[in-house]
Amino acid sequence: MRAKLSGRPEVRSEDRLPPGQHLTTGFPVLDLGIKPKISHDDWALEFGGEVESPVTLTWDALNQLPQSRDTSDFHCVTTWSKFDCEWSGVTFTDLLDLVKPTAAASHVLYTAYDGYTTNTPLEVLYDSDVLLATGFGGEPITTEHGGPARVIIPKLYAWKGAKFVKKIEFLAEDELGYWEKRGYSNTADPWMEDRFS
Ligand SMILES: Nc1nc2c(c(=O)[nH]1)N[C@H]1C(S)=C(S)[C@@H](COP(=O)(O)O)O[C@H]1N2
Ligand SMILES: [Mo]
């Protein structure tokens, strides 16, 4: 999204903030208010639906997968943005290699331990900044920010990233999530201000 001037290095400028957003230096907490506390022993993440290799990951199995880091900006539809969030965890490209979506898979439905759901097209997951995150700023993600593990999709509004994620289903058709059923945009692109449908 940054304009490049020929012959000059790319610099960060005001246009790093999507339209209608303001910068926050803190880290607001936004969710349904339930904040389920799941111990690592009880935690499991199920991948199913249109995949060749359905798998339910335990905490140990998740942590044995290749670990990656990515620093990205976070944009909430309620107009706050947070820059330089240091996430760590497993990239979705690695997870997709593991579960192998079938040719019929086109959409993804995420279900969380608090009952929250959200949905995306499958294609948004093929991006190196999309993570199943377990760390923030070098520390485990706190329960209030979605630990043990949450989905981070930096190029979409933050409601598309399920905190406390429990199940990831690959579908042949789109299925709307909690906010999408209540009038939020299904595309959720902060740069296009896709807030509501
Ligand atoms: N499980 C779950 N995930 C969720 C939500 C929720 O209510 N439950 N809220 C979403 C919204 S609207 C936002 S802005 C971000 C907030 O993440 P934060 O609390 O870490 O700032 O989580 C998203 N993921
Ligand atoms: Mo949000």
Verbal overview:
- With 197 residues, the protein is mainly β.
- It has a domain at 38-172: Sulfite Oxidase, Chain A, domain 2 (Alpha-Beta Complex).
- It has three helices and eleven strands.
- It has helices at residues 59-64, 92-99, 178-181, and strands spanning 22-23, 44-49, 55-58, 68-75, 80-91, 107-112, 117-121, 131-136, 139-140, 150-152, 165-171.
- Strands 1, 4, 5, 8, 9 and 10 form a six-stranded mixed sheet that branches. Strands 3-2-11-6-7 form a five-stranded mixed sheet.
- Strand 2 (44-49) and strand 3 form a beta hairpin.
- The radius of gyration is 17 Å and the shape is globular.
- Mean pLDDT is 94; it is low at 1-5 and 8-13.
- Bound molecules: the ligand Nc1nc2c(c(=O)[nH]1)N[C@H]1C(S)=C(S)[C@@H](COP(=O)(O)O)O[C@H]1N2 and molybdenum atom (MO).
- Molybdenum atom binds next to loops.
Relevant terms:
single chain; mainly beta; Sulfite Oxidase, Chain A, domain 2; six-stranded mixed beta sheet; 3 helices; 9% helix; globular; disordered N terminus; binds ligand MTE; binds molybdenum atom
Query: What molecules are bound to this protein?
Result: the ligand Nc1nc2c(c(=O)[nH]1)N[C@H]1C(S)=C(S)[C@@H](COP(=O)(O)O)O[C@H]1N2, molybdenum atom
* CATH fold-type name of the domain at 38-172: Sulfite Oxidase, Chain A, domain 2
| Shape category | globular
SS summary, helix count: 3
Rounded to the nearest angstrom, the distance between the terminal CA atoms is 23 Å
Which class best fits the helix and strand makeup? Answer: mainly beta
Helix content: under 10%
Radius of gyration: 17 Å
For the largest beta-sheet, the strand count, sense and barrel status come to:
6 strands, mixed
Poorly predicted sequence stretches spanning 5 or more consecutive residues: 1-5, 8-13
Strand elements, count: 11
SSE pattern, N- to C-terminal: EEEHEEHEEEEEEH
CATH superfamily of the domain at 38-172, by name, is: Oxidoreductase, molybdopterin-binding domain
Mean pLDDT: 94
Level-2 CATH architecture of the domain at 38-172: Alpha-Beta Complex
